[in-house]
Every structure is written in structure tokens, then in C-alpha cells.
Amino acid sequence: MKKAVQFSRTGVPSEVVELINMETATVGDDDALIDVEAAAINPSHLLTLSGNYGVQPELPAVPGAEGTGIIGAVGKNVTNVQVGDRVMIPPYTGTWRQQVVVKAADIAVKFPSEGDPIQMAMIMANPPTSWLLLKTVVDLEPGDWVIQNAGNSAVGQYVMQLAKIYGFRTVNVVRRDGLEDFIAKAGGDICAVDGPDLGERVKAATGGADIKLAIDAVAGESTQHLADCLVDGGTIANYGLLSKKPCQLWPDDIIFREITLTGVWLTLWLRRYSTAEERLKVYNELAGYIADGRMHAAVEATYPLAKIKDAVAHAMQGERNGKVVLLPNADG
Ligand SMILES: NC(=O)c1ccc[n+]([C@@H]2O[C@H](COP(=O)([O-])OP(=O)(O)OC[C@H]3O[C@@H](n4cnc5c(N)ncnc54)[C@H](OP(=O)(O)O)[C@@H]3O)[C@@H](O)[C@H]2O)c1
């Protein structure tokens, strides 16, 4: 028997999670058994637990959609991985558990055995989202500026770092004071606190740069603040609903300035818009940046599975200095 987290109903995330003993599935001929090393708690997991995400699992379910682990056993037909390999657990496998059995063919990324498994555990969702936001919405050239809100989020940090790799410059909007050092250390060029006068402040800070892309995780009035920073014809890519409010955008901006508001959802790219070959290429590019330290996200705390309610309550708090990460095998 191994430990796992389960939820049988949706509601307040820290209340609906429970620790259970779970029989690990038998390893079939085409399967791999993975001992889970680390799995982050992301806003999308909290939305799933509260019943508000874009896709909901059948209940009861094991939460968590990403993680890293070590192959503990393989079936007799498996050739792409072997016992001892460190791998990215295939997307949307419930990862908040000690052991999981997957189809070996679904394992797309192998990591080196040295390095920080916690950073590797966060590869599935946020790094490719930053890639999608920077590479698929508008054409950017080296030297171009990009603006984003929730700049201190994990996606925000990856956006700054990937932008640097591609030669783009970033304005990173946050909702509170005191994050200049955090943003600078994460690789951002400019840090600005959100507000109705954001457009004027960003114009002054960038010397009036023509910003073609705004990346919006917050929605509400923050969407309009980003629009105020864009060049005419610019695009806002909304990918998050952190404020839980509708995106605000004046019709004047839509009509007279041709500002476009579009949405980006990794799940659609993974399930509908990308080929296996494209996914492999993108994940392996990102895995390289994570392994060599060019992409990383701050971590505030780690928890064993036994403290799952505390861990989820912690992840639900604002004003964190990084991710809350589960270490499922840390408590035996
Ligand atoms: N569309 C997609 O495919 C996709 C993929 C991955 C992630 N996402 C979304 O990306 C967003 C960031 O995810 P993450 O994992 O990077 O987050 P994270 O590291 O957990 O950080 C949360 C961020 O949200 C900010 N925040 C929380 N409530 C807010 C509010 N009411 N107004 C403004 N800011 C608020 C926090 O600011 P403070 O530090 O000030 O509290 C912090 O910057 C989430 O909305 C997530 O669902 C979308």
C-alpha cells in the first residue's frame, strides 16, 4: 500500500483533500511504475479541487497534473525508459501520490539524475505556457518589449527567463510593493506595480517602446491597464483568471486602436493543437533550460503528503514568495 491524496467532492480545496492508502496498479507489459519525487500545487489544481477548472476529472480522483519521478519498474515491452531514469510524469496523471503506473510510451522527457528534482517537477504546465505566450501569439523580434501582470508568479518568472533567452525585454507588473529585487533576480527588466496610471509609467520606463504583446493572468481592470501600455494593433493574451473578474477592455481600444484580446490554454495545445513531435521538441528545449538553471521558479515551502491539508491551505494564500511543492516520498 502506498499513500495518495484523493478528493471525492469539490469545495474548499484544503477541506476536500484527504490522505488515503492506495494499491498501486499492476505494471503491465507496456507500463512503467514511477516513484514520485516532487509535485507542485498550482492555481489550476486549486481550481480543479473547487470544481472551477476547464476540465474536471471523474471523482474520486488523485489531484495534481505534473511532477517528476524515478522509474521503479518497467513492463517487458518497454524500451524508451529503464529502472532508475528520472522522468517527467505524463501530463494530467494525478501526481499527489507516492507511486503511479503510466503507459511508458507517454513518457516524453527524461532528466539527468543530478540536479534539482523540484525544479524539474514543475516543467509540465508553466514553462510551456510561457513558451506558448511568447512564441505563438504575436511575432516578436529580439529587442522587442513584452508586458505581463502577475510577474512574480511561476509563469511570470518563466516568461522573464524565456524572454531573456530569446532576446526580448520584459515589463513585469505585480500587485504589491517590494518585489523589485525578486523580479530582477528572476531575470525581469522592469518591475511596476499595477494601477490605473500604469500606461504612463510604463511609457516613461521603456522610453515609449512599442509593446506588441501583453500577457494577462489577472483579468478584471488589470486587462485594461495592460491595454493602456500597448501600441495600437497590439494583442493581450489572457491565460488566467486570478482576480475572478471579467476582462475589462474599453470598446475605444478595441475599435479605434485595434487592440485584440485572445486566450491561451496549454490544455488545448496539448490535446488539440500540437503533434507529439512538436510537444517533444518544446519540452526537450525547456528541459534543457531547466537542467542548466536558466529557467527556474522560486519555491517557498515543501511538504510531505501527510501534511496535505496544510500544504493546500498554504498554496491558497496570496503574497507567497514561491511555490508550495509536495515531496510524496519524503515521509516514507
Ligand atoms: N492558460 C494556461 O494554460 C495556464 C497554464 C498555467 C498556469 N495558468 C495560470 O497562470 C496563473 C499563474 O499560475 P502560477 O502557477 O504561475 O501561479 P503562482 O506561482 O502560484 O503565483 C500566483 C500569482 O497570482 C497572483 N495573484 C493571486 N491572486 C491575485 C489577484 N486577485 N490579483 C492579482 N494577482 C493575484 C500572486 O500575487 P501575490 O504574490 O501578490 O499574491 C502571484 O503572482 C494562474 O492563473 C494559473 O491558473 C494558466
Description of the molecule:
This protein has helices at residues 13-16, 43-50, 117-121, 126-135, 154-166, 180-185, 198-206, 221-227, 251-255, 266-273, 276-291, 308-316; strands at 2-6, 18-22, 31-41, 68-74, 86-88, 99-103, 110-111, 145-148, 169-174, 190-193, 213-216, 235-238, 260-263, 299-303, 323-326. It has 332 residues and is of the alpha/beta class. The strands form 3 sheets. Strands 3, 4, 5, 6, 7, 14 and 15 form a 7-stranded mixed sheet that branches. α4 packs across α5 (154-166). Bound molecules: NADP nicotinamide-adenine-dinucleotide phosphate.
The backbone outline, from C-alpha atoms, is globular
CATH class of the largest domain, named Alpha Beta
- If you compute it from the alpha carbons, what radius of gyration comes out, rounded to the nearest whole angstrom? 20 Å
Give every kind of bound small molecule, once each: NADP nicotinamide-adenine-dinucleotide phosphate
* Overall pLDDT score: 97
Give the ordered list of helices and strands.
EHEEHEEEEHHEHEHEHEHEHEHHEHE
CATH T-level topology of the largest domain = Quinone Oxidoreductase, Chain A, domain 1
Q: Percent of residues in beta strands?
A: 15-25%
